[in-house]
Structure to design on (360 residues):
C-alpha cells in the first residue's frame, strides 16, 4: 500500500508541463495556470492535507531502493523536459506575445525546468551510475547551471552549514544578498574544485578534461543550435529563442537558489578542536514533510536525511522529528523568502527556539 501510493504521487510532477502547455493553447491569462498551481493550490493542499511523517519500513528499504520504477520516473522526466523546452522554442519563434505574456510563459517554463528539472538533476547527480550522471548534466545544461554538478556534490555536501559554504544562508541574511553570494561564490568554487581534481590527476587546467570548460560550452551550443534550427524553419533570425532560453535559465536557477536559501537558513556545524567540523547530521538542514509538495519534488523536502546520507534514493528518505521543521512546504516558503521582513519574523524565532531545544 505504502509503495503504491508513492508510485502514483511521484507522477504528479508531470502536472507542471501539462499546465504550461494547456495554458498556452487555452490562451490569455491561462498562461498563469502553472503559477497558480505551484504558488496557490499546492500550498493550500499542503495546509489542508495532513503531513507525511511515515518512513519506509526497514524490511522494505532494500527492495524499494532497487525498484526500477523510481529510477524510471526520473528518466522519463529528462525526455519530457527536453520536449517541453524545444516546444517552448517553437512557441516563442511563432507566437506574438505582449510583455506580460513573455513573463508568464518564460517564468512558467522556469517552474518546469527549475522547479522540477533541477530537482531531478539533483537526485540523479548524486548517483554513481553513468547514465544517471549524464541525465543530470543534460537537465542542468537546459538551465545553464552545469557547474552545480561539481559544486553541489564536491563542495556543498562537504561544507554545508559552515561559513565556507556559499549555498548555506546565514542567520539574518536576506534572500537577495544570499543569491548574489551563492551564485558568484558557487560558480568560482566549482572552478577551484575542478582545478584541484585535474591537479591530482596530473592533467593541465586548460584542456578538454576540464569539465568546467565543457559546462560553459554546452548550454551556449544548445541555445545556438535551437537558434539556427528555428531560424531556418522561420526563414528569419529567431533571436527570441536564445533570449528565451537564457531568461528561463536565469529564473530557473534563481528558483534553485531560493530553495538553497530556505534549506539551511541559519544552520551551523560546530568546529572541533581538531580544526574540522562536526559530522553532518539530520540536525543541519531544515526539513518539511508536507505530503503534496514532497510528491512534486521527489521528497527533496526531506532534506535532513538527504544531507546525512546523500547516497540514499529519494523514495527511501526518512523524516526526523528531531530535525528543524519548516512551517510550510517549499512552494509557500519560497514566496515568504522573497519578502525578507516576513521571512525573518517567521523564521528567526523558530531558529532560536530550535537552537535552545538542541542545547537543552
Amino acid at each position: 500500500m505504502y509503495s503504491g501510493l508513492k508510485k502514483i504521487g511521484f507522477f504528479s510532477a508531470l502536472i507542471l508541463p501539462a499546465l504550461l502547455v494547456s495554458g498556452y493553447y487555452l490562451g490569455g491569462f491561462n498562461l498563469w495556470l502553472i503559477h497558480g498551481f505551484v504558488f496557490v493550490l499546492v500550498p493550500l493542499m499542503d495546509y489542508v492535507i495532513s503531513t507525511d511523517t511515515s518512513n519506509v519500513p526497514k524490511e522494505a528499504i532494500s527492495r524499494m531502493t532497487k525498484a526500477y520504477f523510481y529510477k524510471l520516473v526520473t528518466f522519463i522526466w529528462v525526455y519530457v523536459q527536453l520536449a517541453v523546452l524545444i516546444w517552448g522554442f517553437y512557441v516563442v519563434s511563432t507566437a506574438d506575445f505582449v510583455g506580460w505574456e513573455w513573463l508568464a510563459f518564460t517564468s512558467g517554463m522556469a517552474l518546469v525546468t527549475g522547479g522540477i528539472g533541477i530537482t531531478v538533476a539533483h537526485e540523479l547527480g548524486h548517483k554513481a551510475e553513468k547514465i544517471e550522471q549524464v541525465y543530470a548534466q543534460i537537465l542542468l545544461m537546459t538551465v545553464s547551471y552545469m557547474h552545480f554538478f561539481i559544486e553541489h556534490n564536491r563542495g556543498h555536501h562537504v561544507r554545508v552549514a559552515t561559513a565556507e559554504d556559499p549555498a548555506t544562508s546565514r542567520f539574518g541574511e536576506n534572500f537577495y544578498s544570499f543569491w548574489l553570494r551563492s551564485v558568484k561564490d558557487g560558480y568560482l568554487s566549482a572552478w577551484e574544485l575542478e582545478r584541484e581534481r585535474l591537479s591530482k590527476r596530473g592533467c593541465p587546467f586548460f584542456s578538454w578534461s576540464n569539465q568546467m570548460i565543457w559546462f560553459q560550452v554546452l548550454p551556449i551550443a544548445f541555445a545556438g543550435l535551437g537558434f539556427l534550427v528555428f531560424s531556418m524553419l522561420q526563414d528569419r533570425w529567431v533571436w527570441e529563442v536564445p533570449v528565451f532560453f537564457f531568461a528561463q535559465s536565469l529564473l530557473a536557477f534563481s528558483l534553485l537558489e531560493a530553495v538553497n536559501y530556505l534549506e539551511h537558513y541559519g544552520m551551523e556545524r560546530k568546529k572541533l578542536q581538531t580544526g574540522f567540523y562536526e559530522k553532518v547530521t539530520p540536525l543541519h538542514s531544515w526539513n518539511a514533510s508536507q505530503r503534496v509538495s514532497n510528491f512534486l519534488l521527489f521528497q527533496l523536502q526531506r532534506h535532513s536525511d538527504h544531507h546525512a546520507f546523500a547516497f540514499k534514493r529519494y523514495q527511501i528518505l526518512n523524516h526526523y522529528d528531531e530535525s528543524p521543521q519548516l512551517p510550510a512546504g517549499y512552494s509557500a516558503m519560497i514566496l515568504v523568502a522573497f519578502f525578507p521582513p516576513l521571512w525573518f519574523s517567521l523564521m528567526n524565532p523558530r531558529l532560536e527556539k530550535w537552537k535552545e531545544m538542541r542545547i537543552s
